[in-house]
Design goal:
142 residues; alpha+beta; 42% helix; globular
Length: 142
């Protein structure tokens, strides 16, 4: 899972996935790299991030919902937002997978766990974020 720096707005963009509260992932076609589309995470009061694949962008969105939102500005190049750290091990593991081209083995080593445990963490984050969004929609939050 890899990320790239903040994306440029290309001439061909479409909504890849739209969430509640103005959060969305935009597929950026033309103007991205020669390998194809890139995926930009957008949220109110968030500077945005661009990823090379939709799965990483979606995981980033799940982390965003599990933390009730976070901003990376002023965290430095390798810093982690306090909201992510405070959200627990599973959320931090999922966040690390969206950063710095880290892979499951590196994240597992960081936590002193087996790679299957990192997959469990990611699954928990995805399920928790889905529950948060469903609950918010049930309450009429859009």
């Amino acid at each position: 899972m890899s990320k790239s720096d903040h994306g440029q707005r290309g001439s061909e963009e479409s909504i890849h996935r739209e969430y509640i509260l103005g959060v969305r992932i935009v597929e950026c076609g033309a103007g991205a790299d020669a390998d194809g589309s890139q995926y930009r995470f957008e949220a109110p009061e968030h500077q945005g991030r661009t990823f090379a694949d939709p799965e990483t962008a979606e995981l980033y969105a799940d982390v965003y919902f599990c933390t009730n939102g976070f901003e990376e500005a002023a965290t430095g190049e390798r810093g982690v937002p306090l909201e992510v750290i405070g959200a627990g091990r599973a959320v931090l593991a999922a966040y690390l997978l969206t950063q710095y081209d880290d892979d499951v083995e590196w994240v597992a080593s960081f936590f002193g766990r087996k790679p299957y445990r990192v997959h469990d963490y990611v699954e928990w984050v995805e399920d928790r974020a889905a529950d948060i969004r469903e609950g918010a929609e049930a309450e009429g939050v859009a």
